[in-house]
């Protein structure tokens, strides 16, 4: 028989982990460094601690030349563009109202009066709707009472006819009615 090590169908995979000593590691971990001959050239290793950049926040003054502000543009299908925002017409109208308020001190009062009138009109519309719903409800209640009394009368007549039919069956067993 052949030895098992030469005919093993799956040889153990080589250890391809690469480790680097850094300032935080202990001296005992330096023995786990792989030989440079065993390093896979297709795998990139982790950079040494000294050459890595921190992933933390870097505080830079606003007027620093290193500050790069990028204006991002989003597609129409992007969720960030789907949030409710004011249209350009609304923004323009708000800007005009603000400018007018700065020019004329009476404008805010007029705006409040206009808003109060709009609110009053909407309240009157709501009251009208409530009255319409109330009248419809009363009509439905009247119809419901009528149907309940009609069903009650039908039940009474069906009881009378059923008891009368049972009596008639007992009396006239020999004859058939055409």
Automatic annotation (TrEMBL):
Q: Where in the cell is it found?
A: Cytoplasm, Cytosol; Golgi apparatus membrane; Golgi apparatus, trans-Golgi network
Annotated membrane topology = Peripheral membrane protein
Q: Which intervals carry biased composition (Low complexity)? A: 21-41
Q: Does the keyword Repressor apply?
A: no
Q: What is this protein called?
A: BZIP transcription factor
Region of interest (Disordered), residue spans: 1-95
Which Gene3D superfamilies does its entry note? 1.20.5.170
Entry keyword set: Coiled coil, Cytoplasm, Golgi apparatus, Membrane
